């Protein structure tokens, strides 16, 4: 018992939808729960649904001026000024005021940020830290509760790649990424998977706050390695597509020599890395503008400490 980590009770939780205005499951769930929050109410935790980018939701666009989910940089959050700033920078500052400030003791305990992907990723939980044992225990709980439906864990902790996400305002940020679902479309199966994940997550927090100890465990994660762009011609235009053997194969190993891209005249470009990687966000619609065809990950198993509520 002595080697378990104590974490403070998670008393304040927010559920964010519409960080990207055209990812409809989160937009719809937040709207449902704003009208009637009985489903997300628990006795030991206060949970608030919140629509992050209402102007983008109204337009059914990812964003108005800039990607809100990359806007939570220290520079943006400390920037003086008002109306002249890009809409999402103003919005980031507002969200940071309400749910943060980021990195401070006043910040919300947990933020769940609901996203959809056009990639065939299924249900995915996104964590930003390999040392947050509260979050690791929570995803372990969710994975077990979701079985036999699979629920993958993407770990975005990386020495160079910094995401500055909307949820990063919280002490324990958790991203939900469920797909495949086209932008601007609601699919009932995707909606229901997302709803179940949130239910299990809130059940976990309720149990934790009630004093339940969670024993040490192991959890499989996919750690972000690098972003891979589409092949391009000398003018910078895309010259090949994701290969049919890779399309929809998120989380499956890509080995050296495996087909990766297919040029417009039908020839194959193979993966040339030193060993297997696990691609995900394959052919995500929103990442064309980021010059990203997919992201590679390494699969690893993390040892998770036992956790319990700290007594003070
Ligand atoms: Zn998104």
From TrEMBL:
Main location (coarse class): cytoplasm
Pfam families: AstE_AspA_cat (PF24827), AstE_AspA_hybrid (PF04952)
UniProt subcellular location: Cytoplasm; Nucleus
Domain annotation Succinylglutamate desuccinylase/Aspartoacylase catalytic: ranges: 10-205
Sequence positions that bind Zn(2+): 20, 23, 115
Keyword Cytoplasm: yes
GO MF entry, a single one: hydrolase activity, acting on ester bonds
Keyword Cytoplasm: yes
Binding-site list for N-acetyl-L-aspartate: 62, 177, 287
All copies of domain AstE/AspA barrel-sandwich hybrid, residue ranges: 218-297
Alphabetically ordered keywords of this record: Cytoplasm, Hydrolase, Metal-binding, Nucleus, Zinc
Catalytic residues, chain numbering: 177
InterPro entries documented for this protein: AspA/AstE_fam, Aspartoacylase, AstE_AspA_cat, Aste_AspA_hybrid_dom
Source superkingdom: Eukaryota
Cleaved signal peptide residues: none
Enzyme Commission no: 3.5.1.15
Residues reported in the UniProt entry to bind substrate: 69-70, 163-167
Cofactor binding remark: Binds 1 zinc ion per subunit.
A GO CC annotation given for this chain: cytosol
Cofactor dependency: Zn(2+)
Enzyme class: hydrolase
HAMAP family listed in its UniProt record: Aspartoacylase
Similarity section: Belongs to the AspA/AstE family. Aspartoacylase subfamily.
Name of the molecule in the record: Aspartoacylase
Organism name: Silurus meridionalis (Southern catfish)
């Amino acid at each position: 018992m002595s080697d378990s980590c104590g974490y403070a009770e998670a008393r304040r939780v927010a559920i964010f939808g519409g960080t990207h205005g055209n990812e409809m499951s989160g937009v719809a769930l937040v709207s449902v729960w704003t009208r009637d929050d009985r489903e997300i109410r628990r006795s030991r935790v206060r949970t608030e649904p919140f629509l992050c980018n209402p102007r983008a939701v109204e337009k059914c666009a990812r964003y108005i001026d800039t990607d809100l989910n990359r806007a939570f940089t220290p520079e943006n959050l400390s920037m003086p000024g008002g109306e002249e700033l890009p809409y999402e920078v103003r919005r980031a500052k507002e969200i940071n005021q309400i749910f943060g400030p980021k990195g401070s003791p006043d910040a919300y305990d947990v933020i769940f940020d609901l996203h959809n992907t056009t990639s065939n990723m299924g249900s995915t939980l996104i964590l930003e830290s390999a040392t947050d044992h509260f979050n690791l225990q929570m995803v372990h709980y969710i994975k077990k509760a979701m079985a036999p439906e699979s629920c993958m864990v993407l770990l975005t902790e990386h020495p160079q790649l910094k995401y500055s996400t909307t949820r990063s305002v919280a002490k324990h940020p958790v991203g939900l990424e469920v797909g495949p679902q086209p932008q601007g479309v609601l699919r009932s199966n995707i909606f229901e998977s997302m709803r179940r994940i949130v239910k299990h997550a809130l059940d976990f927090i309720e149990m934790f706050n009630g004093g339940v100890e969670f024993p040490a465990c192991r959890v499989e994660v996919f750690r972000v390695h690098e972003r891979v762009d589409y092949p391009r011609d000398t003018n910078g235009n895309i010259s090949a597509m994701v290969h049919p053997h890779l399309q929809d194969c998120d989380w499956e190993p890509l080995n050296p020599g495996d087909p990766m891209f297919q040029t417009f005249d039908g020839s194959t470009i193979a993966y040339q890395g030193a060993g297997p990687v696990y691609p995900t966000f394959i052919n995500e619609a929103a990442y064309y503008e980021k010059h990203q065809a997919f992201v590679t990950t390494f699969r690893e198993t993390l040892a998770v400490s036992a956790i319990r509520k700290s007594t003070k």
